[in-house]
Amino acid sequence: MLSLELLVLSTSLYLLNPVNGTPLRPGQDYSSRFSPRTFHPRNYVTPDQRASSYDYVIAGGGLAGLALASRLSDDASKTILVLEAGPSGDAVSDTINVPAATYFNSLIGSDPYDWVYKTVPQTNAGGRILAEPRGRVLGGSSAVNGMYLVRPSKVEVDAWSALIAPNDQTAAKNWAWDSFFTALKNTETFTPPVADTESVAGIKYVASSRGTSGKIHASYPGYMVPISSAWLPTLQAAGVSISEDSYSGVNIGGMFATTALNPSNWTRSYSRSGYIDTLPPRSNLNIIFGATVERVLFSDSPVNGNRVATGVQFSTGQGTAVQNATVNKEVLLSGGAIGTPHLLLLSGVGPKDVLDAAGVTVNNELPGVGQNLVDHLAAGTFFSTTVDTQGSIHASGSALSKTPEFNSFVNSGVAYINGSLLFGGDDSFATFQSSVTSSAASSAASLVPSQDSTVIEGYKASYQTTSATIYSSTGLVEILLSLNAAGQITVQAALQQPLSRGRIYINSSSVYDKPVIDPQYFSHPADVVVLRQGIKLARQIAATSPLKDALGAEVTPGSSVQSDADIETWLRNTAATEYHISGACSMLPKEKGGVVDAQLKVYGLSNVRVVDSSVFPISFSAHLMTPTYALAETAASIILAASSPSSSGSPSSNAPASSTGPSTSPTTKSSAMQVSTSWLLLLLPFAMTFAL
After folding, report:
1. pTM for the full predicted model
2. Percent helix, strand, coil in the chain (nearest 5)?
3. Exposed site from 165, 239, 449, 550, fewest CB < 10 Å?
4. Which residues bind FAD (predicted)?
């Protein structure tokens, strides 16, 4: 009887849950639609209700962690525990769900929903200490970011695969374009724009390049500010090609990007709402939020020379009692681009000198942990305007500003610019590229923050790939149209292929002390030159009709900043992160400073994998949300294949695992899901009503 009660209760809660695609009623506002919003009791447990052990323990319930958990739990025979340091997000569900809140009520910089990381002073960026925002909530950065869904190019993805192929050609195929393109499509359900949006913006798309049954909704806002109509004609007039299909491997040119938006109710689609809240009753998945993983635990007996993880140690706050979560199969690290290298270092996995200095026992000397850190830098040219922008309409408090359609608007006008256009022709760019490519050895000697020979070799490999292959084939700069300020329009430029590399390290053995983050922004001189050219192009675009006709005076950087030297100085004192940090647990051969192999396993550890953006060994000309979802989808296939006795450990395809229905719940110390018969009777009418 109890199992029936649980099934009906779970089904009732699923049907009552406000993220399953039910459209807003006419006149219904967000507060009535989404407040209160509760997490599914069938997935949530408190620390003392956890099972005695799990097949997989996932450290981090962010973008990748929840996607991975969902796909692994499709196999009802596997038990999964997710530990997330941040809160559930229920208290700020309206802010998370409403896309426009990204600009007008952002959680970025807000404790406890942002980790509030800071860099050390950046020598080549004006000595500034810069913010490095990272989401700290169920869903991670996918709950707080700008919602862009854009894809890297085929050239970049194939270059990634080629870097790891020497060690495992078969597994490396998962990261080549043909396979990864399938994974990219598997992540999303694409919905074409509504007629008004398509008409105003002149949106172009090819439906066959998009996914049809993935967990994340990909679409366009229900409302476009009228000035959006100037974007594509202006780009074309300025010499920028217009992309008919930027999602099939060639992303050069201008477009309106899709966003992570559910068009059935104009809300954010993110890893929690897409991968977790929509699950059918599933008792083999437990999630604990407010649980900070402090370190990975290892047995004293290596197997074939590799350390074996027995679980993780976690706590619910600084000074609280530590607790252990025991693992039967694997520990999966999905703490994000900063959190995962931080956790490995705290677990005694990393460069020996760093661990010794922090007072951490060395469990596995691995020099590449924390190295190869890379990030996109951005700066904007601001212009005054009297035309309507999203910011001015929002500030007006008009009836339009309160509609779900208006509040689904996020900036999505972008263009990815190649070197030839940036430098004014093929010959000029070829000269610049040649000088960059020829300086690989000297750059490695002077710029790599580690003196370890394997890390230096890895930098040389990624540098050569970037400068010789990627530089000439993909977007070096992203140009972005920003309309979220009142009385102002911004044309932003963002560096996509930086050659500067930094590192993450620790000076404390406590997880509650922040890691030291040093991206070494602009340490390679080519980076500031490329971004300078991007700013010059942004100005050129702003000076081109029809966008020009809507702009007044340039506010920033202003008329006094004109020479190349002046622009570079301004950039060093102005540019900031585009929130795309990655690379500090790179998928590279171990002899090239790699941290994980082509199957995402940490070198020297038999049963620990990394599944998040820290594994990308090179930079992509894209916002990282989409490739990170695809990474998680592929990782789930690899992990499930490895658990099959007859498997070689590499999946035959990137098709997501099929659900086999609910499984028996992990044995818990006390059930989190018990319900009385009286509650069952109360819920049955609701279950039947919502099932109609």
Report:
1. 0.90
2. 35, 20, 45
3. 239
4. 137, 293
